[in-house]
Amino acid sequence: MTAQLIDGKAIAQKVREEVAAKVAQRTAAGKPQPVLATVLVGDRPDSAAYVASKGKACQELGMGSVSEHLPADATQGQVEELVKRLNADARISGILVQLPMPKQIDEERVLSLINIEKDVDGFSPINIGRLAQKGRDPLFVPCTPYGCIYLLEQAGVQIEGANAVVLGRSNIVGMPAALLLISRNATVTVCHSRTRDLPAVVRQADILIAAIGRTEMVRGDWIKPGAAVIDVGINSVPDATKKSGHRLVGDVNFNEAKEVAGCITPVPGGVGPMTIAMLMKNTLRAVEIQHG
Ligand code: GUN
Q: Which of 261, 199, 256, 275 lies closest to 225 in space, CA to CA?
């Protein structure tokens, strides 16, 4: 292995400790505690597990959490009423609406209702719009892309002037990651399923963020020697040697890429733990914006 391993688990732990220390300071000074409200609509087991981990993280860091759950057949009106109630509740610092929501719910309308000072996921059109505009700062940046940039910074990767390639253009990861890289003065190419000669485009990348959800799609010979590789993919593949019968792999073929890259995140233990760590950082920021 020639690449430096970017240890997301350790970096996330450090972020969590910093947040916990600041929360403890606030509490000792009699200031309001950060409280995260999560909204889960429906019964997707993956969404339920994510929301549960977010609540658990709040508890571990000394923050409060409120978990709201609506049934899979909830109406648009019910979801909107819930968001409005959480907006109006001064004890709630941050609101996180877990995505995706059931088909009958207009996600854009729901996200646009979240008070931007409580939009700890950074998905409200105002926060995303500000991220996309020069000289305008969002109050919050989406947690997974924020974690990707944080990992690059911690690994000492120079973003300014770098050629960055983002694989994937989702609202949750690819697009905000591209906008963040642009705001840090990288030259950014966003690739997707219709990009021509993908390996050739990826070979230009000093920084690669892979968030396309395709098992080990990026091969070692696609990587520019010395590149920084951030793998957002979490794909489950069968593995008879594991008790669970499966294991998690990324969008990048790690064994090949680690021989070429300058630094690389593993899966698991790379970007994964950063999402909740950055959500905790955003929730602390929310209470600071609202109450000082
Ligand atoms: N679904 C998948 N990732 C995320 C995320 O970061 N936030 C929310 N709200 N939903 C998600």
A: 261
